[in-house]
């Protein structure tokens, strides 16, 4: 079936979860139209408090639906938008992408993957213990952050559930995703 958009979400307020929408519009250089995190500079409240002039590398948040599937058998009912993502995907290993990967979707929208979402304690406020469930360890014992990836919008366009996602990897050497 390939990589696809399963759901899209946006919220004008700084709330943890975002309501599912029929479509969202990505705006080049800014993010998701009508979303609280839209902007050239960082919009996440904790980051604004530290340095409001930082570039916004977190304009779009993507989560793979496979994570939601993984959480259900261990007791967590998590739906698209519940973890604050703008785009829920299926059929793409978001966490395995290198920094700088381009994701083309919808009506010409292009998102450049900038890094991993660093999960925060708000996840436990949504559901007790969920923070531990979205963190793991790899074979070397290194921390694995499973709560999705962040990106910036390079080209504007509408994105809807069902849209195909075309993946364009950057030139080698690839850089592993780090938290942004």
From TrEMBL:
Residues 19-168 form the MOSC domain. Pfam families: MOSC. InterPro entries: MoCF_Sase_C (IPR005302), MOSC_domain (IPR052716), Pyrv_Knase-like_insert_dom_sf (IPR011037). PROSITE patterns: MOSC (PS51340). This is MOSC domain-containing protein. It comes from Fodinicola feengrottensis. The lineage of its organism: Bacteria, Bacillati, Actinomycetota, Actinomycetes, Mycobacteriales.
């Amino acid at each position: 079936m390939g990589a696809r958009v399963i759901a899209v979400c946006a919220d004008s307020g700084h709330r943890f979860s975002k309501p599912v929408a029929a479509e969202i519009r990505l705006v080049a250089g800014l993010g998701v139209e009508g979303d609280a995190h839209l902007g050239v500079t960082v919009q996440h409240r904790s980051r604004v408090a530290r340095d409001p002039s930082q570039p916004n590398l977190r304009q779009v948040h993507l989560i793979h639906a496979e994570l939601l599937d993984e959480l259900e058998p261990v007791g967590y009912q998590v739906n698209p938008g519940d973890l604050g993502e703008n785009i829920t995907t299926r059929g793409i290993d978001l966490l395995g992408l290198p920094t700088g990967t381009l994701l083309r979707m919808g009506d010409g929208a292009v998102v450049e993957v900038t890094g991993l979402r660093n999960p925060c304690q708000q996840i436990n406020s949504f559901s007790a213990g969920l923070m531990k469930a979205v963190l793991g360890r790899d074979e070397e014992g290194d921390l694995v952050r499973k709560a999705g990836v962040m990106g910036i919008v390079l080209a504007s366009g509408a994105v809807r559930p069902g849209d195909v996602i075309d993946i364009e990897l950057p030139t080698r050497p690839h850089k592993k995703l780090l938290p942004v």
